[in-house]
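Researcher: We're reviewing a set of sequences before deciding which ones to prioritize for further study. For each one, I'd like a predicted 3D structure that I can look through quickly. This is histidine kinase. If possible, include the structure in token form so it fits the rest of the review sheet.
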Amino acid sequence: MRALKFLFLEDSPTDLELIQRELKKGGVEYIPLHAQDKEEYVKAIVEEKPDFIFSDFSLPNFDGLSALSLAKEKCPTTPFIFVSGTYGEDAAIQTLTRGATDYVLKDRLVKLVPALKRAIKEMEEHNALRRAEAEKYEIEEQLRQSQKVEAMGFLAGAMAHEINNPIMAIIDYAQMISKGDLDASKIQKISSKIKQEGERISEMVKDLLRFARQEKGVYEPVSVFNLIKKTRAITEQRLKMSLIQMDLSIDPALPFVLCKEGQILQVLLNLTNNAIDALNQRYPAFNEDKRISISAKREEIAGKGWVRIAIEDFGSGIPPEVGKSIFNTFFTTKGAEKGTGLGLSVSLGIVKEHGGFLSFESALNEYTRFFLDLPAV
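Model: Here's the predicted structure for histidine kinase, in token form for your review sheet.
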């Protein structure tokens, strides 16, 4: 373990010696840094990056509260302990409310080492919590990406089938041109059709790549209408292959929502893919009731604006005993080749991070409705 750097802001050599002697007596090992004024202090906290700061409360042309404010600005996580001879109760309360870790009176230096040990323990606990949060975030990101890859498998399979049609058309057109029997006007028409089919393929691939791209994203105001349009565009090929009709009912005056667009799109795609699976399970072939309805409307709850997105299907429904577990990680009723059980658990985590809610209601062999509620901008 590396030696800790202690910065002492102290203008009295005698007091500095007494403080350092008390630390040595307590068996504390450290690298000492010393500052007597503001200029030396700022240089030390910026260049040396101390692990602890010990500061007098009153100094010529500088004061402890200013030193504390600078520390909170330049190195906010560094523990700051006041060691002063002039320190009343009001000053103690003021410094602690401004972020000081502790304070010790110079005539009671025996309390310095215990104060330091408390600060070290708090710092270690804080660092451990920060590491745990970072690891949790990393695991969540891995789960999200795994689920995204799973969703891409369904979408790519449907898209590959759909792309095959324009590719075959392009090949046929190219063969017609290569025979040399066409006049200029027909060649022009065929070239235009080749361009259209190529652009169609390009748009399909772009939609899939936009969804597949792994990005952390930023929170920004996003149009719910555009989110639902993208969901429909990306799932269009799967809907066609499954003979499913998708109906949209969206309030044109919907407010925007503050979100990470890629993540909310992932939630909508998860819910839509699940609805497709439920409909295919109940209706293997075409049926008039084989449809998905997506609606979005504004709601007001406790005086605050919300947007509710509802995704409804008339498929197999969710049995009550299954409904109790559907948000659990890795829970799935599908075969191993069709799902990992990450979709709804990941979706729930994303929605919670956005300050929203994800819920559902279902009747067996009648319908399932999922509700995604997000705070409006």
